Amino acid sequence: MSSAVILTEPARSEAPAALALETPRYRRIQERPRWISVPLRFLVPALLVAGWWIGSATGTLSPEILAGPPAVWLAFAELYESGQLLDFGIASLQRAALGVGCGVVIGLVLGVLSGLSALGEELIDSTMQINRAVPFLALVPLFIAWFGIDETFKVVLITVATLAPMYAYTYLGVRGVDRKMVEAARGFGLTGWRLVFGAILPTALPGVLMGLRICLSLSITGLIAAEQVGTREGIGYLVTLAQEYNRTDYMVLCIVLYAVLGLIFDAVVRVIEKFAMPWRQLSVTR
User: Which residues form the ABC transmembrane type-1 domain (predicted)?
Assistant: First the structure.
C-alpha cells in the first residue's frame, strides 16, 4: 500500500511595502545676518565702556585710580596732534612684526623637522622643551648683557617669546597627520619638500594657525617687556612716561593701544584662516 506524500506550499507572507526614497535636501549654511552679528560682537565691550564711563562720571572711579573716557580721549588727541602717537605705534608694530616673523619661521622649521624625523626629535625636542620651561622674561637681564639695549635685544626677546609655542603646535600638528594620507600622497609622486608643503603642512594647518595666534598674543607681552628698557619711542616708552608723571590717562591709553594691536594681529590670523581653511566655516553652528 503506497502512501502519497502531499507537499503543501508554505503560506506566503505578505511582502512589506516598498519604502519610498526621498532625495535629501541640501542643507545650506544658515549665516546670521550682519546687522545682527556685528552689533553682537561689540555688545560686551560697549557695556564695559558704558560702565567705565558711568563710574567715572558719577565719581565712583577716582581719576587718580582710573581716568575716565573723556580724559583718555584728550590724551589721545594730544598725542595724535603732536605726531608721537603714529610714530610710537609704528615703532612698536615693527618690533612686534619682526620678532614674531623670526620666531614663527624658526619654530615652524624646527617643528616640522622634529615631527617628521626621529633623529630630528632626538636633536631638537629636548632643547625646545627646556626653552619652553624657562620664562622668557627671566632672560631679559642676560639678553641685555649680550645684545645691549638697542633694537637687537627687543627683537630677540620677542623671537624667543614666540618660538616655543610655534614649535609645540607645529610639532603636534605634524605628528597628528594621518599616515594613510601621507602614503597616498607618496603614491601620487610627492616626496621630500613637495610632500611637506603639499600634504603634511596643509593637514597640520589648524595647529600651525593656533600656534600663530598664541605667538601673536605672547608678542604683546614680549613687546611690553622689551620697550621698558632703553627706548625713546614705542608704546612701552609711553607707559614709562605715564608712570613717571603719574598720568593715568596715558596709562589707560597705552592699554587701549596694546588692545588695538592685539585686535590687528587677531584680524590677520582670521583672514589667513578664511582663505587657507574655508571648510572650517562649515562646522560652525549659528
Answer: 89-269
Residues 172-222 have pLDDT tens digits of 988 888 888 878 888 877 777 888 887 888 888 888 889 898 998 888 888
Please name the residue that has the C-alpha cell 624646527: 110
Packing angle between helix 248-276 and helix 69-82, nearest 10 degrees?
80
CA-CA distances (angstroms) from residue 80 to 64, 73, 249? 23, 10, 14
CATH topology of domain 63-279: MetI-like fold (1.10.3720)
Q: Within 10 Å of residue 155's Cβ, how many Cβ atoms? A: 23
Residues 6+ apart with CB under 8 A from 151: 95
**Alpha carbon separation from 175 to 184, 186, 214 (Å, rounded):** 17, 17, 19
According to DSSP H, which parts of the chain are helical? 34-41, 43-57, 69-82, 84-116, 118-133, 140-147, 151-175, 179-187, 192-195, 201-203, 205-226, 235-244, 248-276
d(CA 278, CA 273): 7
- Scored b (16 or more CB within 10 A) or e, 270-280 reads eeebeeeeeee
Quick check: helix, strand or coil at residue 87? Answer: helix
Q: Structure pTM? A: 0.76
- Angle, nearest 10°, between helix axes 118-133 and 84-116? 140
pLDDT in the model for residue 159: 93
- Of 68, 186, 193, 171, nearest in space to 127 by CA: 171
Integer Cα distance of 227 and 124 in angstroms: 31
- Residues of the chain short of pLDDT 50, as ranges, are 1-3, 5-7, 12, 15, 285
Q: Is 27 helix (H, G, I), strand (E, B) or coil?
A: coil
* Eight-class DSSP state of 137: G
**Are 31 and 286 within 8 A, CB to CB?**
yes
